[in-house]
Amino acid sequence: MRHYEDEGLIVPGRFSNGFRDYCQSTIDRVHVIRTLLESGLPVRLIKELLPRLTGGADAGTDAGCAEFLHEVQSYRDRLAARIAVLSDQQAALDTYLREARRTDL
């Protein structure tokens, strides 16, 4: 959680003794952040995306929205290309294993 705070992804409240107060909305935001990170989206894009997902003051109103969407689409396209390469590699390994099993019989 401190890492997310250091990255500017969350801003927890503070108790009078200085301890962090992770309210439910902060915890919910962390779940969204983790999901986006697990999808491979870089922190830089997550920082831009979060206000749009949570309906922040600048949600969908900034002039760079089209550029941001282009970046996310570009990232998604690169991810799809990587998946295609991995799928081809998996298919090649499957073929190799099938052939290897036939020759072992």
From TrEMBL:
Against SMART domains, the record matches this protein to: HTH_MERR (SM00422)
By its UniProt entry, which InterPro entries does this protein fall under? DNA-bd_dom_put_sf, MerR-type_HTH_dom, MerR_fam
A Pfam family found in this protein is MerR_1
Which Gene3D superfamilies does its entry note? Answer: 1.10.1660.10
* Domain HTH merR-type, residue spans: 1-52
Asked if Repressor is a keyword of the record, the answer is yes
Q: Which UniProt keywords apply?
A: DNA-binding, Repressor, Transcription, Transcription regulation
Q: What is this protein called?
A: MerR family transcriptional regulator
The species this protein belongs to is Actinomadura vinacea
